[in-house]
Amino acid sequence: MKLFETINELKSRHDYAGLVELIPYAKAISVETSMVGEQIVSTLNFQENNIGNPALPALHGGVVAGFMENAALFHLLWEVELNRVPKIIDFSIDYLRPGQTLTTYSHCDIIRLGSRVALCNIKAWQDDPDKPIALARAHFLLANNDPLK
Amino acid sequence: MSTNINPFLKQVSRTPHANFLNLKLVSAESTAVTLLMPYSDNIIGDPYNKVVHSGAITTLIDTACGAAIFQAQNNTQAMATLDLRVDYVSPAAAGKNIQAYADCYKLTSTIAFVRTTVFTDDINTPIATATATFMRSNKSFSIN
After folding, report:
1. Residue A77: which CATH number?
2. Of B44, B51, B84, which to mutate for an interface test with A (greatest number of A Cβ within 10 Å)?
3. Which residues 6+ apart lie within 8 Å of A37 measured at CB?
4. What is the mean pLDDT of residues B71-88?
5. Domains of chain B
């Protein structure tokens, strides 16, 4: 519960940058948050140790996936009134282009927001939003994992 | 019975991001490998309960899949992930190293199909399962 309380404190202070400081993995892969209009947006700064294929060179596909999972989580945390931190149920990603050694941007859409589950689509791109490097979708559990009544 | 381990597998964990996560080769079979991701501060998603971030698990899976394909191919030909689907069936216990067993169960001329099971202590109580497809290439995967 402590994590959820801390996130709510950050939200009340509009401290979107504090979210990255709070989540060690997000900080480790060099996620950055900003506000575009009313929406929180996650970007992934390039760093050498995010490379998966040094010959191309290209970002590690896992880092791109981890960035997109995290972007969806941040989006839900910031845009929706929740009772707890959402738990990822599943994640599916299609890789469209190699991730170059550039900044990666993301856009999240909540496709369905139920009382127990949310479905979020995530797009990641670099130099051109019309040429995404990956598209992904994730389900998150919003409710407690209590036995069904 | 011993399996020949593709010597190239040792290098896979030396690519910059695999090295950053300190991924290690545990074992290999004819078409399958087990990789280990040591528990570390870098992979934490929940700093209070010390739960590992799902993104780090996805990276372990993607890397293990690539290693399994190298092992199944028995060469250094590169591959590119087409798609990857992960089910996070239960959270990893805090402080535990995480292992991924990836099996490249089918290679066609162009595509590799891989199934992965992720666990901490016992493969029969997985924390995640995944299925992925990869595009094969005739270019060599060069580390240096």
Report:
1. 3.10.129.10
2. B84
3. none
4. 95
5. 7-140 (3.10.129.10)
